[in-house]
Amino acid sequence: MSSTRISVPEQVVHRAFGEQTVLLNLATGQYHGLNATGRRIFELLSERGSTDGVAAQIATEYEIDEALAASDLDDLCTALTERGLLVMDADASV
């Protein structure tokens, strides 16, 4: 995934439950559960406001191949976007 601007819609809330985090879109009722790795990716996306460097950091933190981390990042962003829990703007320069 090339660098993409990321934002969390105002109507989306998230809460940790033990090792999992649940994201909920209050306007639509759509939700998604994240495991510890998914939660870390979401934290990085929220902090940075883009995908820039997230796969590299996840690869380092979890000692996995960066290509695998990038694929997982892409899959998670797609799933969250489809549920209205994340907005991706690939046209915006980061």
Structural description of this entry:
- With 94 residues, this protein is an alpha+beta fold.
- The protein has one domain (7-84).
- It has helices at 36-48, 54-62, 66-82, and strands at residues 5-7, 12-17, 20-25, 31-34, 87-89.
- The strands form two sheets. Strands 2-3-4 form a three-stranded antiparallel sheet.
- A hairpin with a 2-residue loop joins strand 2 (12-17) and strand 3.
- Helix 2 packs across helix 3.
Keywords:
94 residues, alpha+beta, 3-stranded antiparallel β-sheet, two-stranded antiparallel ribbon, 3 helices, 5 strands, globular
Question: Termini separation (Å)?
Answer: 13 Å
Sequence of strands across the biggest β-sheet: 2-3-4
Strand content: 15-25%
Topology as a string of helices (H) and strands (E): EEEEHHHE
Q: What low-confidence regions span 5 or more consecutive residues with pLDDT below 50?
A: none
Biggest sheet descriptor: 3 strands, antiparallel
Query: What's the overall average pLDDT, rounded?
Result: 92
Total strands: the figure is 5
Helix content: 40-55%
The rounded Rg comes to: 13 Å
